[in-house]
Specification:
4 helices, two-stranded antiparallel sheet, elongated, alpha+beta, single chain
């Protein structure tokens, strides 16, 4: 069963120590391992995403578009869902800056 194999692998690797070079290689491998349609698994850590996020924050002058707050945790939110609109994933016009609290509320409803 798949769950048993996962538990066995976890037990096997539990107390292993890896060098910093090996850890770096594993992180890079995980970053670019395809999950869907060749898109990196951790796509929010890619330089392309970081550039998009910075442009969105610049467009909104590092302030929440709704509350105009700048002294709280802010996030860049995609207006159109990334899963169904992948071509707009890195388009700055598809982003808005909102507070983390508003962002959580938006996704909870």
């Amino acid at each position: 069963m798949p769950c048993c194999a996962k538990q066995q692998r976890k037990k096997k690797l539990q107390n292993r120590c890896f060098s910093s070079k090996t850890i770096q290689k594993m992180q890079n491998s995980a970053l670019y391992r395809p999950l869907r349609n060749g898109k990196p698994r951790k796509w929010r850590k890619t330089q392309q995403y970081k550039n998009w996020r910075n442009l969105v924050f610049q467009m909104y002058s590092n302030q929440c578009a709704i509350t105009a707050q700048s002294n709280t945790k802010l996030v860049a939110h995609h207006l159109m869902d990334v899963k169904s609109n992948e071509k707009f994933c890195f388009v700055p016009a598809n982003g808005i800056v909102i507070t983390a609290q508003l962002h959580k509320s938006f996704h909870d409803h």
